[in-house]
């Protein structure tokens, strides 16, 4: 149950992070935003990881996998922000949250037992997410910076990135230690974003007015990812990855409340299906 709790807490944190991401990414250059967010997370993690991280436990494979998880972070976060810059939360978040099936598949490949009830729970989550996404197919172009299909493609790639990030991060944590893995992944991701920013001759100056919000986003994102990665050493670690997917639905709820984005009755049906899947996972973990 502890892994499930880690995942649900991460989901709530990411929901607020994504709400800010949707608001700030519209019409803005994304690389400066991503660089500041990732840099803030690293600055918070460095003193903690250096002070209490078990660096002696890190093995060669753990270092290599942790670095690969950083590439997954770039893929997940970059595509997430891009999708949010193109379409409303109600379309993007449910699709990004559809990664649980990939996370459980990774658990199978790693040789961990996955029951039929686990797959049933994931199916319920994915069906709910699909309902929310499918019900937007008749939306007008208002609020979209590109066609819904383009936004969906970016969101789908982001979902793959999240699945890879969680699977690689948890495996690295099992072969090494939590905090060193988390910090290594984020430093690799930050290095990639900085390199891309320099390559495109970007500047952080336009984002100065948003620095306080971006720093908060970086901190809470680091905490959420840390919770999911830390679950790698717990029983049924895949529960953390699966349950954290709830952030997609929670973001829809928050957007409906704060950004006044509409949620149709059929979308509430999808939300109920997701909650049912999460509840089933909880019962399995008891």
Properties at a glance:
single chain; 286 residues; mainly alpha; 77% helix; 0% strand; membrane; DMT family transporter; EamA_dom; transmembrane
Provide the fold topology.
Blueprint (H helix, E strand, L loop, with lengths): L1 H24 L4 H23 L7 H27 L2 H8 L3 H10 L6 H19 L13 H28 L2 H22 L11 H20 L7 H6 L3 H12 L6 H21 L1
Pfam families: EamA
GO cellular component, one term: membrane
Protein name: DMT family transporter
Question: Quick gist of this model?
Answer:
It contains twelve helices and no strands.
Please explain how this structure is put together.
This is DMT family transporter. Helix content is 77%, strand content 0%. The protein has 286 residues and is mainly α. The chain has one domain. Helix 2 (30-52) packs antiparallel against helix 8 (178-199) and helix 8 packs across helix 9. It is globular, with a radius of gyration of 18 Å.
Detail the poorly predicted runs: none
Proportion in β-strands: under 5%
Total helical segments? 12
| Total strands | 0
Which structural class is indicated by helix and strand composition? mainly alpha
Largest sheet: none
| Run of helices and strands | HHHHHHHHHHHH
What's the alpha carbon Rg, rounded to whole Å? 18 Å
Tell me the count of domains.
1
Question: Looking at the structure, what is the overall shape?
Answer: globular
Indicate the mean pLDDT. Answer: 86
Measured distance between first and last alpha carbons: 6 Å
Protein name: DMT family transporter
Transmembrane segments: 31-50, 62-84, 90-109, 116-134, 146-169, 181-199, 211-232, 239-259, 265-283
Keywords: Membrane, Transmembrane, Transmembrane helix
Organism: Tabrizicola piscis
């Amino acid at each position: 149950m502890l892994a499930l709790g880690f995942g649900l807490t991460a989901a709530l944190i990411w929901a607020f992070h994504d709400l800010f991401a949707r608001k700030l990414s519209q019409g803005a250059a994304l690389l400066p935003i991503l660089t500041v967010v990732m840099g803030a997370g690293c600055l918070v993690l460095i003193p903690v990881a250096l002070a209490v991280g078990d660096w002696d436990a890190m093995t060669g494979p753990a270092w290599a996998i942790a670095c690969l998880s950083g590439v997954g972070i770039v893929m997940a976060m970059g595509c997430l922000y891009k999708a949010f810059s193109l379409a409303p939360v109600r379309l993007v978040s449910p699709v990004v949250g559809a990664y649980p099936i990939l996370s459980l598949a990774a658990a199978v490949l790693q040789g961990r037992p996955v029951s039929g009830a686990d797959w049933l729970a994931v199916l319920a989550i994915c069906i709910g997410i699909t309902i929310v996404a499918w019900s937007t197919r008749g939306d007008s172009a208002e609020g979209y910076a590109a066609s819904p299909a383009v936004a969906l493609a970016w969101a789908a790639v982001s979902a793959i990135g999240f699945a890879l990030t969680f699977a690689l991060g948890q495996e690295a944590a099992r072969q090494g230690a939590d905090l060193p893995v988390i910090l290594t992944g984020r430093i690799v991701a930050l290095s990639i974003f900085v390199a891309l920013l320099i390559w495109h001759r970007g500047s952080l100056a336009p984002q100065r007015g948003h620095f306080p919000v971006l720093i908060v986003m970086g901190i809470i994102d680091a905490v959420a990812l840390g919770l999911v990665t830390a679950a790698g050493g717990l029983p049924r670690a895949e529960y953390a990855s699966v349950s954290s997917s709830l952030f997609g639905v929670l973001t829809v709820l928050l957007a409906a409340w704060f950004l006044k984005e509409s949620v149709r009755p059929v979308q509430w049906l999808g939300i109920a299906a997701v909650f049912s899947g999460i509840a089933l996972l909880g019962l399995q973990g008891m």
